[in-house]
Amino acid sequence: MSIFRRKQKINDDKLYAPATGSLISLEDVSDSVFAQKLMGDGFGFKPTTGNIYSPVSGTVTLVASTKHALGFTMDNGLEVLLHMGVDTVELNGAPFDINIKKGARVRGGELLGTMNLAQVSEAKLDDVLIVVITNTSDQLDQLTLPEPQVFDGGTELGSGTAKGEN
């Protein structure tokens, strides 16, 4: 009997709604760095509730000390950033209660924690959630998303296919 276990691969190239709310085009987010796709291709999401869900299945590679950003690596090699709000780093983690740690394995649509939308609003900051594939230029083959509309948190949105994947 072995005491070591292999991390089971999650063969899931799908993208999931990071909250309940409205899918918006990345070009329409208020942060110009993301809107110009300088960090990679992806989408914006305007939340109507504070529950935050994993936008992908994979390994957590980043939990920012201010909890405003989470990074993931999907098993297909795509690296995904979930950035919660614009300039929310200035709030030093106050509106966020994140229940995962770096190295954890998550499934797409899994509840990760909460973002206090009222606190973000009171600070006069944008609460938009931004999901980008940071290695777009060398790894992303295709990004498939539906037309902008309202989704429940954790709902499947589309897929991100890595180069060489079929």
What does the model show?
With 166 residues, the chain is mostly beta strands. Mean pLDDT is 91; it is low at 1-6. It has one domain (14-146): Glucose Permease (Domain IIA), CATH 2.70.70. The strands form three sheets. It has an eight-stranded antiparallel β-sheet with strand order 9-5-6-7-11-3-2-13, with no helix packed on it. It has a three-stranded antiparallel β-sheet with strand order 1-14-12. A three-stranded antiparallel β-sheet has the order 4-10-8, with no helix packed on it. It has helices at 32-35, 117-122, 136-139, and strands spanning 14-16, 21-25, 41-47, 51-53, 58-63, 69-73, 79-84, 96-98, 105-106, 111-115, 129-133, 140-144, 150-151, 156-162. It is built from three helices and 14 strands. The longest helix has 6 residues, at 117-122. Residues 31-135 form the PTS EIIA type-1 domain. One of its GO terms (cellular component) is cytoplasm.
Distance between the termini: 36 Å
Provide the structure class: mainly beta
CATH topology, which one? Answer: Glucose Permease (Domain IIA)
Could you report the average pLDDT, rounded to the nearest whole number? 91
Overall form: globular
Rg, Cα atoms, Å: 15 Å
Instruction: Supply the CATH architecture.
Output: Distorted Sandwich
Quickly count the domains: 1
Oligomer: single chain
- How big a fraction of the residues is strand? 35-45%
Count the E strands. Answer: 14
Contiguous runs where pLDDT drops below 50 for at least 5 residues: 1-6
Helix content: under 10%
Which sequence of strands runs across the widest sheet? 9-5-6-7-11-3-2-13
CATH level-1 class: Mainly Beta
Order of helices and strands: EEHEEEEEEEEHEHEEE
Number of helices: 3
Biggest pleated-sheet summary: 8 strands, antiparallel
CATH homologous superfamily designation: Glucose Permease (Domain IIA)
